[in-house]
Amino acid sequence: MSNKNMFMKSAFVRAPLQNGVGRYVCQLQRIVLKFCKSHGGSRGIRDFIEQDLVDFAKQNASVVVYLKPRRHRGPVLVAEYLNGDRVWMNVQNKTHSEITKWMEVLRTQQGDISGARLRKYQYTDYPSVQGPWTPFTFKDPELNVATLPDPKFGANNRLSISATEKLRLMFEKQAISEKDVKTGE
């Protein structure tokens, strides 16, 4: 066992503030687009700003968008979320379409939980006193000591007729009813 998780923040995976129960609240609070006006690596983000930024801002009125031109620096997206997380993403030499996709990813996620040690994989506001459900929850206890295969625990022990036999009988009934229709009875 290693102690690499000792310095990582711990977190639960859950929808903040029961998001989606009543109405959806976008978790992205603000996004800062840092870019250079002349550097070649910033071309994709400049294209995004010229073509799609106004539409993005109109569609996401709850998100504050800042533009920060910087000389001779690489382009960066910095997203800040309602839970206080900040996600920093280098978009050096990314195309306009890639930046559009990354903006959508940043808009739809709830912060950076990839760097967090997860304490539980499930979370509920009302935990069960009976424990979690498993596929073996309602199984017969005799199955624990039985020698398998046992016809007593077989899946087809309740059926008096096999599926093949049932299909054969249905086909015979259908053939008889078609014969009666042809003869006019």
TrEMBL record:
- SUPFAM superfamilies on file: Thioredoxin-like
Q: Which UniProt keywords apply?
A: Mitochondrion, Ribonucleoprotein, Ribosomal protein
- In the UniProt record, does the keyword Metal-binding occur? no
User: Where is it chiefly localized?
Assistant: mitochondrion
Q: Which GO terms describe its biological process?
A: mitochondrial translation
Q: From the UniProt record, which GO molecular function terms apply?
A: structural constituent of ribosome
Q: Where in the cell is it found?
A: Mitochondrion
Key word Ribonucleoprotein present: yes
Q: InterPro entries, per this entry?
A: Ribosomal_mL43, Ribosomal_mL43/mS25/NADH_DH, Thioredoxin-like_sf
Stretches assigned to the Ribosomal protein/NADH dehydrogenase domain: 37-110
Q: Which GO terms describe its cellular component?
A: mitochondrial large ribosomal subunit
Family as reported in the entry's similarity comment: Belongs to the mitochondrion-specific ribosomal protein mL43 family.
Q: Return the PANTHER family for the record.
A: 39S RIBOSOMAL PROTEIN L43, LARGE RIBOSOMAL SUBUNIT PROTEIN ML43
**Name of the protein this chain belongs to:** Large ribosomal subunit protein mL43
Give the source species.
Vanessa tameamea
Name the encoding gene, please: LOC113403268
